[in-house]
Amino acid sequence: xxxxxxxxxxxxxxxxxxxxxxxxxxxxxxxxxxxxxxxxxxxxxxxxxxxxxxxxxxxxxxxxxxxxxxxxxxxxxxxxxxxxxxxxxxxxxxxxxxxxxxxxxxxxxxxxxxxxxxxxxxxxxxxxxxxxxxxxxxxxxxxxxxxxxxxxxxxxxxxxxxxxxxxxxxxxxxxxxxxxxxxxxxxxxxxxxxxxxxxxxxxxxxxxxxxxxxxxxxxxxxxxxxxxxxxxxxxxxxxxxxxxxxxxxxxxxxxxxxxxxxxxxxxxxxxxxxxxxxxxxxxxxxxxxxxxxxxxxxxxxxxxxxxxxxxxxxxxxxxxxxxx
Length: 324
Prior knowledge:
By secondary structure, this protein is α+β, with helices and mostly antiparallel strands. The chain folds into 2 domains: 2-227, 3-Layer(aba) Sandwich (Rossmann fold), CATH 3.40.50.300; 234-323, CATH 2.40.50.100. Helices cover 24% and strands 34% of the residues. It has 9 helices and 19 strands. It has a 6-stranded mixed beta sheet, sandwiched between helices. A 5-stranded antiparallel beta sheet has the order 2-1-4-5-6, with helices on one face. The longest helix is centred in the middle third of the chain and has 17 residues, at 164-180.
């Protein structure tokens, strides 16, 4: 179990973060830029100091600023591996040498062979980093981190610089590795789809405050507040008697949860005309203008092309309603 309690003073707000990550599980820290996500990782790794820090890993105190005397384990003793958005490989070393740099005894092992195979790097071991694509450089960075046999893996948006296909492939590789070798992991991301794919639990952070923490399904389907709903992708906020809502309430809509078709048991059935459509990362996003003039977005398969102006029946899920 990784437990942490961090308080850090910022210019305009304070970072206050607490979490408990079960051993072998993946915890995602999700929020907008400047919310404090990377600061949490930097404090955990020992790169930054905070006004108050308590980090406990498997009953061992890694850092405790309130203890007398204070406890602060050096970075190199923590056993935490850190992978950033930029791979930061050594340009003068081969891929094999870069990976071995993360191995404490400097010896190649069968476990390392398994990692090389899992990340499909067998044919690149003699290459230099400049000869690899961005996606394969990041694979090397991840293998180097895993080769350390880290107690905790810290991932700071390791996929954000990659194209969507490279992201998908690398995420799938990591899922397969985790199935065989669970590692306590805390990673930050701007992508809710990454959280859905990789994490058991997710924490929503905004301006240094942890607004909600729970399973990915709990947070996505039952945001604790309007702000959480906005952060996880709810884009439409509908009011009025047209939706059968009580006075002062409004319905919050996520485009991935709108159903094309008539499903009265799932929510409000209404109609709208296609006013806009675009493709994004293998999906089709359409915008509908409803009968009352409101607009909602819908995520659909690209194989169901809808013409502009077409009348469509949709079901709006009614599970997320807030009062104003």
